[in-house]
Amino acid sequence: MSPDPSNTPHTSKSAASDPALAELERLRASIDNIDAALIHMLAERFRCTQEVGKLKARAHLPPADPSRETRQIERLRQLARDAHLDPDFAEKFLAFVIREVIRHHEAIAADARRTSKG
Ligand SMILES: O=C(O)C(=O)C[C@]1(C(=O)O)C=C[C@@H](O)C=C1
Fold it and tell me: Its Gene Ontology molecular function terms (predicted)?
């Protein structure tokens, strides 16, 4: 089944007549804005890491840098605590993103090796 693209809950009540549904719609509009911002921020981060991947391939640096990751995890966990966000969740999210970045770095490096061999 295809997803319902609307914000409207599957109910016969309308937001105009039900304050709870009006509030739900308002909150969902905020969530949609925040999700859009997250996607744009992530795209910007990946543009930046693609540049890092090319730089690392040119300089023959390894795709992963575990000591940098250790510092990032500590920093993000502290930012999460300050923002009242679960630091374990913040760490898992960062690990998920970095795993994808390393996959990109490896692909860029493999491509550079293929190209240099001719
Ligand atoms: O800073 C780097 O060296 C990167 O390659 C970027 C990045 C990241 O996504 O933040 C990705 C892989 C490394 O292990 C560490 C950090």
Answer: chorismate mutase activity
